[in-house]
Amino acid sequence: LRGQEVVIKVQRPGLKDLFDIDLKNLRVIAEYLQKIDPKSDGAKRDWVAIYDECASVLYQKGISWPAILPGQEIDYTKEAANAELFASNFKNMDYVKVPSIFWDYTTPQILTMEYVPGIKINKIEALDQLGVDRKRLGRYAVESYLEQILSHGFFHADPHPGNIAVDDVNGGRLIFYDFGMMGSISQNIREGLLEAFYGIYEKSPDKVLEAMIQMGVLVPTGDMTAVRRTAQFFLNSFEERLAAQRREKELEAAEVGFKKPLSKEEIVMKKKERLAAIGEDLLSIAADQPFRFPATFTFVVRAFSVLDGIGKGLDPRFDITEIAKPYALELLRFREAGVEDIKKRWDRQSQAFYNLFRQADRVEKLANVIERLEQGDLKLRVRALESERAFQRIATVQKTILNAVAVGSLINLATILSLNSIRVPATIAYFFCSIFGFQVLFGIVKIKKLDERERLITGTA
């Protein structure tokens, strides 16, 4: 090493045994959540798959670098390999620094790397004394993660302030530490994310939904109308938000300071108006549950949540969407210039040319449908969401009433048996009485939640 300063990370004895115990307990919890998750928000979460993703990030036997490369907290050679791959991905970006690895002094239990000192990214006063631009650091953090996820599909899964430092090289540089927890994203997920950006850019709900289907986030149901309307609503809201941000930036700082903030009542009223606009569609989505939460996104969502908190600490006006937009547009311009996009454009033109000669057949099919409607041969399925919700509430109320009747009957039976000194059957009756009693309580809570959700979604809360 010739006098060079290094950092040596030594594994604590018995760490694998502790991981084994914790992961076994988490497995039990995941299986329990899989059974009791009500999924009332329209999304189906695979808790066991999420557990498996977390377990693979901690350690997974049989996978060697550079295969899938999940981070392996108990094998430091894997962490070292992750660090080198991460450094290779950012070799052309001077605002990211990764400590070099000394392989001659690295084993599965000992990691030796270059000593790169820095200031924690959340130490605001120290960063100001260092003289770096905090706003630019926030932008660098977001851009680095977009680069990791969209360009390389290999990202740091634990970006808390202890793992990201800053020095004054090149006017402010991000230093990443601890590569034991790394995530990987498959090619189809990355392509789906780019397609989603493209759909948002074009304000096309259909493209966004196609991208979500490609990523496995959305499973097509029989009726996608409610999902499409909801996507259109959120695209419009997103565009309005960006327009409002542009208008706010155009105002002078003095005017912004004197701008009257919305009152609590006005905020609640605006929320009710938004929910009332898509309330029925949200209830339909909650009933059909077309959305999925892929385990791959577990650490992606966590990473961006942490980054959002770090960014707001660096700059109170930090907006992750505003920073991501130019980066996404650059990727889209690169995408549009690619051969793949030319092929897609050619396919669309070919399809349009083909459709031109199919119009006569389609008109004939439309005429056949109208004729079948007139003759009564065509059946239409009409879905009344109000009736479905009413039936769900009635079924819950009936079940709760039956449980309450069972509680009353068992209490009477147990009391009679106790008075006649028949203790064992009386104890059994009291036991089942308690079970039905808990069912009554759960039923009351469920009815209350159904009523609250109805009022919230319909804007009458």
Automatic annotation (TrEMBL):
Membrane-traversing stretches: 401-422, 428-445
Any one annotated GO CC term: membrane
Domain of life: Eukaryota
Keyword entries, A-Z: Membrane, Transmembrane, Transmembrane helix
Pfam families on file: ABC1
Swiss-Prot/TrEMBL GO biological process terms: membrane lipid biosynthetic process; regulation of response to reactive oxygen species
All residue ranges annotated as the ABC1 atypical kinase-like domain in the record: 3-211
Entry's family note: Belongs to the protein kinase superfamily. ADCK protein kinase family.
Protein name: ABC transporter-like protein
Originating organism: Trifolium pratense
